[in-house]
Write a structure and sequence with these properties.
The protein has twelve helices and two strands. It is mostly helical. It has one domain. It has a two-stranded antiparallel sheet. A hairpin with a 6-residue loop joins β1 and β2. About 50% of the residues are buried. The mean pLDDT is about 90.
C-alpha cells in the first residue's frame, strides 16, 4: 500500500478506534473514581477537581492497534516507537495511579520520574545508535548537510528524551492544550515521512523506505487518535490525558525526531513546550537566587491565566504558534537528502 493511501487510512481507522473506546474508558474511569485532584493554588481550576484522568490510554491503544492492523509492527521503527511510547505511558500511569489512590496531586517523586525517564531513554538511545539507518548522524535544518555526532549522539539523545518528555508534561495544564499541540506535531512528522518517500529516499533502498513508511504510519495513527481524544479533552474537558498521556506523547514526538534523524525540528514544532519548560526553570532559579518570582505562576500558560487571558484563548494561541512552528519545521526538512 502506498504512503499516500496508508497514512490517511491509518489516521481514519485510528480516529474510529479511539472514538469507539473513548466513552467506555471514560465510563470506567468514572466508576473507578479515577479523578484528578487539582492543585489548590490553581484557583481558576478548582471546578476541574475530580475530572477523570489517565485518558492517554485512549489514543495510545488506538494508535498501537492501528499500527498492528497496517503491518507497522513488522518494522523496527514503528515497533520500537510504539514500545517506547507505551513505556513512557506506563511511567505516567504509575504517577497518575498514586495521585488517584491517595487523592492528592503529588504522584511519583521527581527523582523517581527522572530515573524512569532516563532508563527508557537509555534503551531507545542504544537502539538508535546501533541501528544502521539512524546511527550517529543527524540532518541540519534548511540545508543538505548531515552531521556525524559520534559518541556525543548518546548523551545528546538521552538528554533530548528526558527534556522533551518533561517539557510536554509541564505543558499539559489546560484543556486540550497538549492534545492539539501533539496532533499538530504528528501531522508534521507524517508529512515529513511522505516527503522523504516521494522525493528523498531512493526507490532502490526498499528496507529504508519500509522503515520510513512505518514511522509515517505511527505518526498518522497517533494524529488520528488524538483528534478523537480532543472531542472529550477540549474545554470543558470530560477527561484528562494525565501523565499517562503527556509522557507518552513526549516519548512519541522524540522518537519520530530521532528515528527520522531530524532532532533539530523540535526547536520549531516544540516551541511552546520549550516555553513551558524554560518558564519553570527561570521561575525556580530566580526565586532561589533572589527570592522573587518572574511569573505570577509557572508554567507560562498559568501566568497568562492569572493575567486574565481565557483558557480557550491560551490554547488557541499555543496551537496556532505550534502550527506555524510546524510549517517552518516542515520546510526545514525539505532541503535535506535522506539517503
Amino acid at each position: 500500500m502506498s504512503a499516500g493511501i496508508m497514512f490517511p487510512a491509518a489516521a481514519l481507522v485510528s480516529f474510529a478506534i479511539a472514538a469507539l473506546i473513548a466513552y467506555p474508558v471514560l465510563t470506567l474511569m468514572r466508576k473507578l473514581k479515577a479523578g484528578q485532584t487539582v492543585l489548590v493554588y490553581v484557583d481558576k481550576h478548582s471546578g476541574k477537581s475530580g475530572t477523570p484522568t489517565m485518558g492517554g490510554i485512549i489514543f495510545l491503544a488506538a494508535a498501537v492497534i492501528t499500527c498492528a492492523i497496517f503491518g507497522g509492527m513488522d518494522f523496527s521503527f514503528c515497533a520500537v516507537a510504539c514500545a517506547v511510547t507505551a513505556a513512557y505511558a506506563l511511567l505516567g500511569f504509575l504517577d497518575d495511579f498514586i495521585k488517584v489512590r491517595f487523592k492528592h496531586n503529588q504522584g511519583l517523586k521527581a527523582y523517581q520520574k527522572i530515573i524512569g525517564q532516563a532508563g527508557i531513554a537509555v534503551l531507545v538511545t542504544v537502539f538508535s545508535y546501533r541501528n544502521r539507518y539512524i546511527s550517529d548522524t543527524v540532518y541540519l535544518p534548511f540545508t543538505t548537510a548531515e552531521f556525524n555526532m559520534g559518541w556525543a549522539f548518546i548523551p545528546f539523545t538521552m538528554i533530548l528524551f528526558i527534556a522533551v518528555t518533561n517539557a510536554v508534561n509541564l505543558t499539559d495544564g489546560l484543556d486540550g492544550l497538549v492534545a492539539k499541540s501533539a496532533a499538530s506535531n504528528m501531522i508534521v512528522f507524517t508529512l515529513v515521512c511522505g516527503y522523504m518517500l516521494a522525493a528523498a529516499v531512493p526507490e532502490s533502498d526498499v528496507l529504508l523506505r519500509g522503515q520510513v513508511q512505518s514511522m509515517g504510519l505511527f505518526c498518522a495513527s497517533l494524529a488520528g487518535a488524538l483528534f478523537a481524544f480532543i472531542w472529550l479533552n477540549a474545554s470543558p474537558a470530560s477527561i484528562f490525558m494525565g501523565d499517562t498521556g503527556s509522557l507518552a506523547l513526549g516519548g512519541a514526538v522524540t522518537c519520530a525526531a530521532v528515528f527520522l534523524k531530524i532532532p533539530f525540528i523540535l526547536v520549531f514544532i516544540g516551541i511552546m513546550y520549550m516555553v513551558s519548560c524554560i518558564s519553570v526553570i527561570v521561575q525556580v532559579l530566580v526565586y532561589k537566587l533572589k527570592g522573587r518570582r518572574v511569573f505570577l505562576m509557572a508554567p507560562f500558560h498559568h501566568h497568562l491565566e492569572y493575567k486574565g487571558v481565557k483558557e480557550s484563548k491560551i490554547v488557541t494561541y499555543y496551537t496556532l504558534i505550534t502550527t506555524v512552528g510546524g510549517v517552518i519545521g516542515l520546510i526545514s526538512c525539505m532541503a535535506a537528502e535522506y539517503v
